[in-house]
Amino acid sequence: MLVSGVAPPLPAPQLATFLSQLAVLLAVALGMGLLARRFGLPALAGELFGGVLLGPTVFGQLSPAAFDRLFPRDGMPLLDAASQLGVLLLVALTAARLDTGFLRRRAGDVARVGLGALLLPLAAGIGLGWLLPESLLPAGVPRGLVAGFFDVVMCVTAIPVIAKTLADLGLVHRDVGQLILAAAALDDTAGWVLLAAVSALATGAAGAGGVGAAGAGVPGAGASVAGSSVSVAAASAGHSALLIGLAATALLAAAALLGRPLARLGLRLAGHTAPAATAYAVLVTLLFGAAAGGAGLEPVLGAFLAGIAVLRRLNPAHLAGLNTVTLWVLAPIFMAGIGLRIDLTVLAQPIVAATVTAAVAVAVTSKLAGAYLGARASRMTHWQGLALGAGMNSRGMVEVIIALVGLRVGLLTPAMFTVVVLIALVTSLAAPPMLRAAAHRIPTDPTETARHEQQLAWTHKEQT
User: Fold this and answer.
1) Structure pTM?
2) Which of 204, 311, 331, 430 could be 96's S-S partner, Cβ–Cβ 3.0 to 4.6 Å?
3) What pLDDT was estimated at residue 402?
4) Is 1.10.340.30 the CATH number for 83-212+229-459?
């Protein structure tokens, strides 16, 4: 008999389904990832495509009943939660390989590239939001709010996908890889602040509609009350954005203050037994991720800070095993999970296909051009600018999360949700080949070679 107030365990059938999902996703992701490598593509491309094959586009069409049994709608949150562990560890372990001394020296370059890759997509998002077909937009939602939401859609980057791309292409040690990760973290922070503001405005606008309706029949009352409600919504949006901005600053300050003490504690634990460093790295990553999530930010930003503030100071050889499991088990499940949400059958509708084409073109070109201009303003070469723009183009799961928020607050119709998710897929698939083509033309610096030799410890586990 269960003690009163204690939640019952997961039912055996639901647990079996969950384990089957993980097994199938991992098997298909690994198989497609290895196949992609055979054709000279990064594993990420195959893993994403494997998820698409398992999703409603292929498996869901070939056997709808089997698809619903394996991936029931009510079971997706459990799968998403499990994949988040892989996301957090992937980001933390990649951030741990950042050269902070190099980034301090190039802080101005990071800021210029980050701002370029933020501001130009913001302008493009506003334009796209005002030009979207009326038939694809939710009824009664102000066009300006939709444009504001597409600001966020265009400006964000996906640090987890960027981390996987750099790992697959062997570019984490290159200067351009370091700059891409740092600038992406800057853009993502700004993107989540903007998302908080737009979400608050959308929620307030919905409330304004309700209030306005209540005032119907009283001359001028509807407009007056609705206007007042919109003003309140705008104030609430500003307040939400300010709070998240302050929370991001506080989290950054806490990471700077606690980084060394936490790292010393980890080193002492590893001195007793090396495997303890692995458990400690996971613990710190989870705590930083939870802190960021509690502050209204994306948890991956907390994981990024955990990596750069704490894990970077630990012995890489102690974390090599964790790095291997993350890259070969947890990350492929996450990448296939992104593809699992893609339904390409909606492209049979001409208006949706045209909108996807236009939106993807705007997303790719605005991010590429913005980062390129920022790089050129920093006196970087043509190929360095293209590499930065290509690397920062990945939207990945971050875009999917934003699409889910937009659907929840009423800013997206199901058709536009698919459009945004397809932006995530196409940009994540297009970024690796563009980045590799540009990076191949950038001469290797001796400091990059030295950094690469230091990072080899991440793949060589220390014996205990």
Assistant:
1) 0.80
2) 311
3) 84
4) no
